[in-house]
Amino acid sequence: MCQPQKTVAEISFLLLKYLSKTSINDLGSWKKIFVILEKELGYQCIDFVQFSKFNYQICSNLSASRSYSKRQIGVINCLLENYKFEDSPGYFRKLDTPALSEFFDHCKADLLIIVPLFLRKNLEGALLIYSDKTPAKLQEEERVIFNFILSRLKDYFHSNNYKKLLQKRSECLSTIATDIQKRFELAAIASEILIYDWDLIEKKVIRFKRGNNKIWGYSSSKFNKGLFWNKLIHPEDFTKATTTLKLQLDNKTANAVTCRYRFKKLNGEYAFVQDKGYIIRDKEGIPIRIVGGVSDISDLVEKESELEVANERFSLAMKASNEMIYDWQVQKNEVTRSASFQKIYGKKNDQGSLDQWFCKIHENDRERIKTSFFEALENKKVQIWKQDYAFLINNEKIYVTDRCFILRFPSGKPKRIVGAVLDVTETKSMIEEIRTKNEILKDISWSQSHLVRAPIVRMQGILNSLDDPDLYFWKNDELFKIFKDSVMELDQEIRRMAQKMEDL
Predict the structure, then answer these.
(1) Residue 342 CB neighbours (<10 A)
(2) What's residue 476's pLDDT?
(3) Most confident listed range (378-387, 464-473, 477-486)
């Protein structure tokens, strides 16, 4: 790079003389200073841009040569954040920095030298020096001049004008913080949950709830006190909750944590709560903040408990039952059957199609059942279907009762079918046995009313004839033979009925 036309002492004296005549807080004065530097040092453009850690420009650049758009400010700010300056200038060539190509083209430069300005170890801004000269390094004399300018800029930052800027920044941040707090409160009102913002670095927690309403009997002032929350977690749940939190925080890829625990209310009772948080991490993956919400799920846990008891009761009932539950997703044509399928039919849970089931129905019943079933599906008014049929298991015939409930779309088209198949083989055998015995009993009853009654009537007639003189024309031996035959006939019939009774 070419040597300056004036000596360092001459340029420094000129700048000092100019600054003594103007206010250090006058932006116009600084613009003239940079014009002098460009002229005396022979650079294409010299500028200064101030930034904050919140990624926006506090004031406009001080150079009269150019201005920066919001997008361009973002490009330079990104460069300042990602480059490790450590009080030394950074050198960026046009060919190596495509993002800055428009800056180089505008200034007709090939090199950008950034001289950082640190204030209390914070990067507050930088001198931007555009050049088309070689060598690419600042000369020692130029360093002295630029350090002089930076020292004066530090005075500018400490001036009343800068304090006003800081005050505006503080007011802006305060407004943003107030707005964020209101949004949290509105979210808490809308969702009826307790929202919290936990600063893991400062170890502070702010909780937002619905207005001035107390939650579980506690006021806001109680909620935001130190370890107040941890002390009210049920002892049996505390270890599990803290372990879950630690595992998620240690896992740098995790960005959420969820856990359930019991929380002690002011009246001494415990509420079941669900705690969901979103983990915010820095660039190294270290957790710095958690924003989340706590909701009361006591009613849900109670319903889940009731459901669990009901499911257990149903499961035990199914173990003692000969019923197999099935669920047919009509559109997918997939049938899922309960675990009792293996117990009843001697094979694992079958998740085949309905056609596979029809193939196992006995051929004498198959077409009848298919016709009846699909007619029920087509009839939009039918919700319950029931049929009895024979079913083949390992080539052995069993008898089942199949009944189901048909769930339909609003259009009436079948959506889902849930039903149960009951093995009634034993019941059917018992019915057949009862039917057989009923036939025997009918035969016995008929014999009693006809075959038994006939000889008894004859014997009664003989006895009655003995007392009637008009009927004494019968010989004794004839009466005796009739009586004897009747007794023998009655005896045989009684023996026959006794044998049938034994067969029952």
Answers:
(1) 14
(2) 64
(3) 378-387
pTM exceeds 0.70: no
Please report where in the chains the tokens 């014999």 appear, as a residue.
447
Domain ranges of the chain: 8-158, 192-302, 321-423, 435-503
Length of the chain: 504
- Which CATH superfamily does the domain covering 8-158 fall into? GAF domain (3.30.450.40)
Q: Closest Cα partner for 112 from 124, 122, 102?
A: 102
CATH class of 192-302: alpha beta
User: 3.40.120.10, 3.50.50.60, 3.30.460.10, 3.30.450.20: which CATH number matches 321-423?
Assistant: 3.30.450.20
Alpha carbon distance 357, 353 (integer Å):
7
At residue 479's C-alpha, the angle toward residues 473 and 481, to 5°, is 145
Is residue 195 very low, low, confident or very high in pLDDT (cuts 50, 70, 90)?
confident
User: Three-class SS of residue 122?
Assistant: strand
Instruction: Tell which wins on pLDDT, 439 or 344.
Output: 439
Question: String of b and e for 159-177 (b: at least 16 CB within 10 Å)?
Answer: eebbeebeeeeeeeeeeee
Question: What would the 3-class secondary structure string for 381-393 be?
Answer: CCCEEEEEEEEEE
pLDDT digits (tens, 9 = 90+) for 2-34: 445 567 667 767 776 666 665 555 666 777 777
